[in-house]
C-alpha cells in the first residue's frame, strides 16, 4: 500500500513525511525543496489480538507496543504541484507520474494561509488555503483527462463498432494509474455521459475524471501549520471536506526527535507528552515544549498519526488480519506468535487473504479456520477486523 503526500510547494509536505517516517529529507522555506520523490515507511495503529487471546506475540512484519500493532505503510513525498502542472509547468508531469501507483493521497495544505499557489511565503492569513484544495483537485483531474484523451478517439471509434462498454475503453487508457474498472463504471454512472464515447467532449471528460479521481485516489486533507492558523481557515477548508484534520507536522517531528533522544516520553498519536525525569533541558527547550503542549492540548495532538490512520482505516477502509499455521498456538511454521499483520480491504474473504499470503495458497485453497472461534469457514467467509486465520490448502 502506498500513500502519496501531495500539495503545492512550501506547505510542509516534507516535514510531514519526515515526521511520519523519521526518514532524512531536505526541509527548507522555499519552493521545490523536494525534486526526486522521497519514499519511506510510516506506521498505523491497530489493536493486536495478543491481549484478548492471552498470549505474548512475536511480530515479524510489524511491531507490537503495549498491545497495539504498528503496521507499516509506504509513504511517497513528491515535488510540490503548481498551477498548470498538468500542462508541464513547474516539475509538471514528473510530479504527477510519480503518483501513478498511490492508493490514496494526503493533501497537505498551509492552513495558516501564508503561501501563495506557487509556494512563495508571505504573512499568515494573506491567502485562502481552501484554494489549495480546489486547485490540487483540478490539476489531478486535468492530468487524468490528458491521459484519457491521448488516443481516445481511435479507441472510442473501435468500441462503438464492436459494442464495447465505455468503462472497458477507459480502463485501457488508465491501466497504469491503478484504477479499477469498477471505479470507472461507477464514475460513468455518476457523470451520466452518453453511452457512445465518440460523443464525449473535454468538459465531459473533465467531469468524468473528477469522479474517477475521487473514487480511485481518495484524499485526506492535512491542515498543516494549524498552531498559527486563523480558525476561520479551518472552517473554509472543512466546507470542502468535513473530515479535514488539523496538523502540526513541525511539532510532530520535534517530538519524535526528542523522544528518540530520551528527553521526553512520547509515542506517535499521543495527545500529550512528558519530560523524562532527569532530562537535561535548556530554557529554550522548556519554552518550546510548553508551547507545543499548549497547542497539542487545544488540537488533541499533532494530527500526523490521525491523518495516516484516516487514510488507511477511513477512506481506504482497511482492516487487519493475522494469518497463522497453527490455530491453537496462533503461530507460523517458525513458532512465531501472531507474526504478520496484513491490511485487507473491508469485505475481503478468506480466499483473498490466502492470495495475499501466497498465490499458491489462493489457487489451492480448501478451507480456513477462524483461530479465535476454532470454527471452520469457507472461501467466501468475510474477514472481520482483527481476525486470526489459518488457511488450509492442497499441497
What's the pLDDT, averaged over the residues?
A: 90
Number of helices: 14
What is the CA-CA span between the terminal residues?
Answer: 29 Å
Low-confidence stretches: 30-34
The CATH topology of the domain at 316-393 comes to Ubiquitin-like (UB roll)
Number of strands: 14
Which percent range describes the beta-strand content?
15-25%
In the CATH hierarchy, what is the class of the domain at 316-393? Alpha Beta
The gyration radius over C-alpha positions equals 23 Å
Q: What's the helical proportion of residues?
A: 25-40%
CATH superfamily of the domain at 316-393: Beta-grasp domain
Overview in brief:
This protein is of the alpha/beta class and 395 residues long.
Give the tags.
single chain, 395 residues, alpha/beta, Ubiquitin-like (UB roll), seven-stranded mixed sheet, 14 helices, 14 strands, 19% strand, flat
Can you give a write-up of this model?
With 395 residues, the protein is α/β, with parallel strands linked by helices. The chain has a domain at 316-393: Beta-grasp domain (Ubiquitin-like (UB roll), Roll), CATH 3.10.20.30. It is 38% helix and 19% strand. The protein contains 14 helices and 14 strands. It has helices at residues 13-21, 50-53, 92-97, 130-149, 152-162, 166-174, 181-191, 202-216, 231-240, 249-260, 283-299, 304-315, 350-357, 359-363, and strands at 2-6, 38-47, 63-65, 68-77, 104-110, 219-224, 245-246, 264-265, 274-275, 318-324, 342-345, 365-370, 375-377, 387-393. Strands 1, 2, 3, 4, 5, 6 and 7 form a 7-stranded mixed sheet that branches. The protein is flat and about 75 Å long.
